[in-house]
Structure formats: C-alpha cells, structure tokens
C-alpha cells in the first residue's frame, strides 16, 4: 500500500499535531480526538460525554449558536462529531482554501466554550439527545442490544458497563455546572490530538495551528485514566432473553477479548472476518446459505483500548426457525473455528478482503485523519495507520485457534436473545 | 481592540477543480463504455448499469428486478453460489448487484491489479448466471423475512405507507421498488431467468470504470469480456403517476412507540424536470442542510427531534417529495403543524440572501468532496449514462446552481410544493397521538395497522 505521510509536532501546551499532506483533491480534513469518552463519566451522569459533544456545537466566545455548522456548510464543507467509550472526535472536511476556518472554529470552542453556555441551550440539546436515544435505541427493534451487551459483559461500576448514549434519568440530571467541570477537566490541548490530512502546505498549516491553538492553556491536573481492570473471562455464561417489538428473533453472542491495539486483539479482528465478512464467510455459508436458519448474520469487534473489549456475533432467525436451533448451530460454528482453526485459503480470503477495505477507507481524507488521530490518541503511535495491513496479515492460524480457545468457551460467553413480545404474551396466556 | 483570534479567518485562494475527465466509447454490441482515469489511486471501481430496474418489470411481478439482481451473485454455470463467493473474495472483491426503479447495477471495487480478474468474473456472472432454484427460493424467503421485519421498524413503516397513501393504487410508485409480500411471494426462478434474458442485455447497458487505468487497456479488457455479449432489450415501461390527492392523515399504529416517524408530502417531480436546479436549491433551503429551516426549527429551537429534512426523490417519472423527522410522541401534532407551516413559508416569500447564499455555497463548495473517491467518480457518471444527461453536466453544474436566485426558489416553491393538500403519514402510537391530531384539525384521520394489506 502507499505510505501515508505522518509528520508529528507538539505545541508547548501539549497539543499533539499530526500533518498528513496529500494534494490529489483540493480538500482538507481537520480531525480532533479528545481523550475522553463515556468511560470517563461519573456515576449518575451516564450519557454526559455525548451530551457535552452536542454542547460543543452551541457556540463559543466568537461563534454564535448554529454558526459552526453554518460556516462549514457555507463553504461546502461537511462536519460532525461522535462520542464512544474511549474518546470524542470532531471533524470537518472542506475545500482546502478554507483550512483555517476549521482550525479557528475548533480552537475557539477549545479555548472558550463556557462563556457561550446557557441553560436554554443545555435544555434544548438535552431534548435533542433524548430524541437521539429514542430514534436509535428505544424505538428501534433490537435497539437496546449494545447497551444490554455492555451491561452483561462488564460488572456494575466498570467504565464499560454503561452505554455511551446513557440513561434518560442521567441525561435529565445533567447541569450547567457539569458542563463547566467537564470542559475544564477534559477539553484541554494536552488531552487532545489534532490531525490535518489532505491538500495543504505544512509550514503554513503549522503556523496557523500555532496561532489558533498555541494560546490555549494546558490543564496541568488531567485526571488519571479510570481503572479498567477486569478478569480475562466472565467466569461463566451469562444469558438474557428480551421480549421486544420485533418480528423475528435474533441471538447475540459475545465474548470479552483483549483490548484494541494488542496482538491478542488483532487475532479477533481476523476472527470476526472469518466468521462474518463476505458471502464466503463461515457463518453466511453455514447459517444463511446452506442451513437457511438465519436471514442475516454479523460478526465484529469494537476497537476499545481500555483493558478489554468485545467480539460480538449475531444472527436473525428466518421465519419458522426456532431461535434455540439457530443458537445451537451458531455456537457450533464458532466452536469449530476454535478447534480446527482457519484453513490457509480462508486466511488468504480475509487478508485480501481486509487489504481492499483498508485502502477503500483510506481513500478519503476524513477517514485517514480519523484513523491517524485514533492511533495517536490511544497509543501515541499515529504511524500505526501505515501498518494496518501488515499487522492483520501477521496473524497466524495458530494465533486464531489459541485466541478462540482461550476466549470463546462457555466460561466467557454472553447470549442475549430478542424474541417477539407477542409470542411471550401468548405463551404466558 | 478586537483580539487576534476573534474574527473568522479569510479564505485562501481556491484551487481550481473540475469533475475528472472521462472518455465515452460505444462498443460494437451497443454497450457503452465510460472510463474515468484517476492517476495515483489504489482502487478501481467498476459498475455495469442496465435498463432492468423495477421500471422494466410488469406490475404483477413487482420485485422481480431486485430478486434477479440478487440472484445473479449466487453463481455462474461454472461456479455454484459458495464457489463464486470464494472466487471473488479471494481477489478481495465483493461483487454486488441491486436494482432501483430506474436501473439495475452490478459491480465491485478492487485493488488496481485485481480489476481485470474481477471484470472477468463480473462478465461471467452477467452472461452465464446459474439461477439455481434453491438459491432463488432462499433469497425470495429472505426478502419476505425482510419485509416482515420492516413492520417493526418505524422509519421503514412510515416510508412504505407514505408511498401507498400518496400515489393512486394503480401507480407502480405506490410500492417500494423491491415489491410487496403479495407480488414477491409467487415469484419463481423461471421469472428471474426471463427478466435477466430480456433486460440484462448490452444494447442499453453502460460499463463504468474509474481508477488508475489507461483508456486503451480498459477498452481491451471490456472487449475481451463483454465485447461479444449480444442481444437487445425492450427497456423500461412508462410509469404512470397519479396522486391520490387531498389532505388526510394516515396513522400507522405502532403501540408503545416513544416517537412518531413523520412524513409530510406529495407527488414531486421527475428527474428531467426543467426546474431541476431551483427545486434542488429550494428543497435544500427547506430541509437539505443542518441549518435548513426544518432542522433549525424542529431540532435546534424546539428539541422535538434528532434531525429533520426534506427532499425530492426524482426518478424517470415523478417520485415523491417529502419532509421527514422522527419526533417525540408527545409533540407529534405540534411537529406536524410546524412542518406544514415551514412548507407554507417557502411559498410565502423568497428566501433571504444570506440563507440562499449558504445553501448555494454549500452545493457548489461540496462539489470536490463528492468525487473524492474512485467510487464517487464512478457514481458521477451514472446519472449521465442512465438519464442521458449532457456530457458537460458536471462541467456546468456549479454555474447552474449559482444561477438560481431567490425569485426562482420562490417560484419553485409555489409551483412544486402543495402544503394545502399534502399527505401526512406517521408511524407511531395511535392511542397517544390521535386526540392531539384531532384537536389540531389538520384533516381526516385514518388509523391502519402495519399488517393491514
């Protein structure tokens, strides 16, 4: 693959800056990762990191409410932000001659969010976020699966136990005081990574970054990372059955696995593709094509770096198929990969699919910038963006088998099953 | 004195950008080849477009175009379903095939050195498909399961019922292009074979190849794989469109819903409408960007929703226009009223200069972002090929957006929006929204159950 240029800098206030020039198209991506996510939330404030992300679009000292979106859109740029367990990211892609606009907007809110905060804005965005939760979780079939999975895989009080979207109750409790404290604690240059990728002049960009971000003071008292310790395995099988507004049952199986960024995790990246990527994958072949038990299947890992993360697999039952039959076959298919390990041609298949997928993602300056920020923020190694394919290809059949043997047994298994609520009601009647 | 960082920085000098140059070359058998050379890329995007979408179906067989496309990827005479998946995926390629109203597509994206082998497999799939009965039946059952599944998804429920209620019953657009349970259930593999034999033909087809390729080399590869593909196709039928017309409210009952999925609209315009550009800009002012009137009002002022938007779905014949949002159940009637008021507002007066400028600058400025990837560049060729647009479509696109003024936007709103007779569909908890809707007096209310057919 073509090597992506990585030029690292650090401002005196601790802001890590990575420049990755590429002039193929006259557009540029600005991407900030703040090292704060839902795992940093206090008890009783689940969902706050994400609610705070919304407040970052409500204006700052020199930018009015709504202007951030309006200014970036107004030059033909696209933008957004997202929050997950480990981080919060903010990003713009825009015509390259407007690079400094994005730098200015990002620096203004990093420097001076609080003067623009009002109770009215907080109440408005609280309502918006509650509607986001309704749209993506409460009013969607299987919408609560990820939240329930986290609750089953990590113990009460663990930072991964609760969902990033948080509870309605905790969202209601969030105050302006919380906004101030969160901002002062986490939204500091020494807790962030800024990546610029695309069409720009490095010297000019660095000068502009210094001008806009240089004056922002560091937080000398960044809190230590929350304790993430947890045993390698669950210590048993955990199960839950959820009657929901669904037409077809779906079974989710998940396992606690080593965290993103480790060799142990890399093997599960490969596992998820062996199981669920492509029509030649094990689960598609077995459950969808040959046995016709499932209408669809999926397998994935979450790139979480806090001590442990998850391999998740799900399959939706075809009409008339008993969910127990589907689960038994799904577990059998997973078990066979653990005992047999993958064949050479299976590994070849997922490696070439993976290489094409990586190239496809990195074609976009926005995605390139995001991955660079990710590796810089989580591991302080932005150049890992250039070894994604090599690291994946280095995983051996033996490592897959060993990882599966250690982590996919019944002593580390979560089974979460969604069933149509009316079936449950009929059974009870 | 103003602090140094208080002011928006001045823009630099824009670098000129234009849609990538492309070559268009008819092969002898009627197939048109489009090549978009993009040096310094790692990927090649290949798309075969045929005039075999849902518009080419006969109405009782609704869904056969989609199922035919899906069945194509289940193997060739030489390779069964799994062997075909294996052969493509060993190249790092996932071949797709799908169908919309106006076009059926098959294609892939691959690392550059793999595309000739990928093109060979694509050609084999299109020319010598297996159409195994077991695989066809499986895909039909999966489609039926998906339709069943959609009844629990409020957004899809609202979309489906909106089409059913906005178009007259005998209009094909009253259904989704993938068909209804009634039309899909009886479909057979024989019908898929027939649809393929009639419509997957070269005479109305286009092959688009974008990436770090030389034109001559692509011409050679296309001729070698598809040059002696033959036959002619009847093409699509003319879709007759009729609006049911008249204001009414259809509540698709989903008890327990904490939100209502709202659709407000009517039959819109066709892709070739002379007011394409004013309509595009007008819809963007109303609901095409974050700062649009709908999103500003319903989200940023009222907090009723996570997001609201509006757009024309333009097809060969007049597709629907709709404003849409998922709103909290408690504010459903208010959200409907607000939405109607915003649509009416578009007709009341031209947009102010700043508002219009932001939308036009967005549509013009975002132009290079749309074609950043090889897939994006290939997608840029599709409307030119499928709708027969002028080859300078993208070359003149930004000027034509720029030329839209407030008067044209206002005229488009007056001519193309019909708030007084707009249909209102919402998927939500009927028992909890009905009283407010009645009190709002917005029109006659009909409550339907998702399973009603």
Describe this structure in words.
The complex is a heterodimer of chains A (429) and B (453). Chain A is of the alpha+beta class and 429 residues long. In chain A, 44% of the residues lie in helices and 19% in strands. Chain A is built from 16 helices and eleven strands. In chain A, a hairpin with a 5-residue loop joins strand 1 (7-10) and strand 2. Chain A is globular, with a radius of gyration of 23 Å. The N and C termini of chain A lie far apart (61 Å). The model of chain A has no long low-confidence stretch (mean pLDDT 97). In chain B, a hairpin with a 4-residue loop joins strand 4 and strand 5. The mean pLDDT of chain B is 96. Chain B is an alpha+beta fold and 453 residues long. The longest helix of chain B is centred in the N-terminal third of the chain and has 18 residues, at 133-150.
Descriptive key words:
heterodimer; A: 429 residues; globular; B: 453 residues; alpha+beta; 17 helices; 17% strand
* % residues in beta strands of chain B: 15-25%
Q: How many alpha or pi helices of chain A?
A: 16
User: Rg of chain A from C-alpha positions?
Assistant: 23 Å
Query: How many whole angstroms does the radius of gyration of chain B measure?
Result: 24 Å
Total helices of chain B: the number is: 17
The largest beta-sheet of chain B arranges its strands as: 1-2-6-3-5-4
Number-wise, the strands of chain A total 11
Give me the oligomer status.
heterodimer
Contiguous low-pLDDT stretches of chain A (5 residues minimum) are: none
Structural class by SSE content of chain A: alpha+beta
3D shape of chain A:
globular
Rounded mean pLDDT score of chain B: 96
Helix share bin of chain B: 40-55%
DSSP E strands of chain B, number = 12
Which stretches of chain B are low in confidence, meaning pLDDT under 50 for 5 or more residues running? none
Could you tell me how far the N terminus lies from the C terminus of chain B, measured between alpha carbons in angstroms? 69 Å
Helix content percent band of chain A: 40-55%
Largest sheet of chain B: 6 strands, mixed
């Amino acid at each position: 693959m073509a090597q992506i240029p990585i030029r690292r800098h650090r401002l005196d206030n601790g802001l890590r800056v990575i420049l990755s020039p590429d002039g193929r198209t006259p557009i540029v991506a600005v991407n900030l990762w703040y090292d704060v996510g839902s795992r940093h939330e206090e008890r009783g404030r689940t969902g706050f990191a994400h609610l705070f992300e919304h407040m970052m679009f409500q204006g700052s000292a020199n930018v009015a409410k709504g202007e951030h979106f309006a200014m970036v859109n107004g030059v033909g740029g696209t933008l957004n932000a997202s929050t997950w367990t480990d981080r919060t990211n903010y990003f713009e892609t825009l015509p390259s001659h407007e690079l400094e606009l994005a730098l200015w907007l990002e620096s203004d809110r990093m420097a001076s969010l609080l003067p623009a905060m009002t109770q009215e804005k907080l109440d408005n965005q609280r309502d918006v976020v509650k509607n986001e939760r309704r749209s993506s979780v409460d009013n969607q079939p299987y919408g609560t699966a990820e939240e329930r999975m986290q609750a089953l895989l990590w113990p009460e009080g663990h930072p991964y136990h609760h969902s990033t979207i948080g509870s309605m109750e905790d969202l209601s409790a969030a105050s302006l005081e919380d906004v101030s404290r969160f901002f002062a604690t986490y939204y500091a240059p020494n807790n962030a990574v800024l990546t610029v990728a695309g069409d720009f002049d490095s010297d000019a960009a660095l000068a502009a970054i210094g001008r806009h971000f240089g004056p922002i003071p560091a937080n000398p008292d960044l809190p230590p990372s929350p304790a993430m310790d947890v045993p390698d395995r669950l210590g048993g099988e955990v199960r839950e059955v959820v009657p929901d507004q669904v037409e077809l049952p779906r079974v989710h199986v998940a396992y606690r696995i080593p965290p993103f960024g480790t060799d142990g995790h890399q093997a599960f990246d490969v596992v998820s593709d062996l199981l669920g990527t492509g029509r030649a994958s094990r689960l598609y072949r077995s459950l969808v094509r040959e046995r016709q038990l499932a209408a669809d299947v999926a397998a994935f890992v979450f790139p979480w770096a806090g001590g442990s993360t998850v391999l998740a697999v799900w399959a939706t039952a075809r009409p008339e198929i008993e969910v127990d039959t589907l689960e038994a076959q799904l577990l059998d298919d997973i078990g066979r990969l653990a005992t047999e390990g993958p064949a050479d041609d299976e590994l070849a298949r997922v490696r070439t699919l993976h290489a094409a997928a990586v190239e496809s993602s990195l074609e976009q300056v926005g995605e390139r910038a995001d991955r660079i920020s990710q590796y810089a923020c989580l591991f302080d190694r932005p150049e890992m963006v250039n070894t994604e394919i090599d690291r994946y290809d280095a995983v051996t059949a033996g490592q897959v088998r060993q990882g599966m043997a250690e982590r996919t047994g019944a002593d580390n298994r979560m089974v979460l099953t969604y069933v149509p609520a009316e079936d449950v009601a009929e059974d009870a009647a | 004195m103003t602090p140094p960082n208080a002011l928006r920085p001045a823009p630099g000098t824009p670098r000129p950008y234009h849609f990538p140059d492309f070559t268009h070359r008819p092969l002898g058998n009627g197939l048109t080849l489009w090549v978009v050379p993009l040096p310094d890329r790692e990927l090649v995007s290949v798309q075969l477009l045929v005039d075999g979408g849902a518009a080419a179906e006969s109405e009782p067989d609704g869904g056969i175009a989609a199922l035919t496309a899906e069945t194509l990827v289940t193997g060739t005479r030489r390779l069964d379903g799994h062997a075909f998946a294996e052969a493509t995926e060993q190249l790092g390629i996932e071949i797709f095939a799908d169908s919309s109203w106006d076009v059926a597509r098959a294609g892939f994206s691959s690392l550059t050195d793999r595309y000739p082998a990928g093109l060979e497999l694509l050609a084999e799939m299109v020319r010598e498909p297996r159409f195994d009965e077991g695989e066809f039946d499986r895909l039909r059952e999966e489609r039926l399961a998906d339709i069943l599944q959609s009844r629990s998804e409020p957004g899809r429920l609202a979309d489906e019922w909106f089409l059913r209620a906005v178009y007259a019953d005998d209009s094909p657009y009253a259904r989704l292009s993938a068909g209804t349970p009634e039309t899909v259930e009886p479909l057979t593999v024989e019908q898929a074979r027939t649809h393929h034999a009639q419509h997957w033909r070269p005479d109305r087809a286009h092959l688009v190849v974008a990436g770090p390729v030389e034109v001559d080399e692509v011409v050679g590869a296309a001729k070698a794989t598809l040059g002696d593909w033959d036959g002619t196709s009847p093409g699509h039928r003319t879709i007759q469109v009729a609006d049911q017309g008249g204001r009414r409210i259809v509540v698709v009952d989903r008890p327990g819903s904490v939100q209502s999925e709202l659709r407000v609209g009517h039959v819109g315009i066709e892709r070739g409408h002379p007011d394409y550009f004013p309509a595009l800009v007008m819809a963007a002012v109303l609901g095409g960007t974050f700062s649009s009137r709908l999103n500003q009002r319903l989200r940023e002022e009222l907090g009723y929703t996570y997001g609201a938007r509006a757009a024309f779905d333009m097809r060969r014949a007049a597709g629907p226009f709709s404003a849409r949002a998922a709103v909290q159940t408690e504010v459903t009637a208010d959200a409907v009223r607000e939405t109607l008021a915003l649509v009416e507002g578009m007709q009341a007066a031209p947009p102010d200069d700043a508002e219009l400028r932001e939308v036009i600058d967005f549509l013009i400025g975002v132009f290079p972002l749309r074609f950043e990837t090889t897939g994006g560049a290939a997608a840029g060729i599709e409307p030119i090929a499928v709708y027969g647009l002028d080859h300078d479509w993208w070359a003149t696109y930004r000027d034509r957006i720029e030329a839209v003024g407030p008067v044209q936007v206002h005229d488009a709103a007056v001519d193309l929006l019909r708030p007084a007779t707009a249909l209102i569909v919402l998927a939500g908890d009927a028992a909890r929204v009905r009283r407010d809707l009645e009190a709002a007096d917005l029109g006659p209310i009909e409550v339907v159950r998702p399973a009603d057919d």
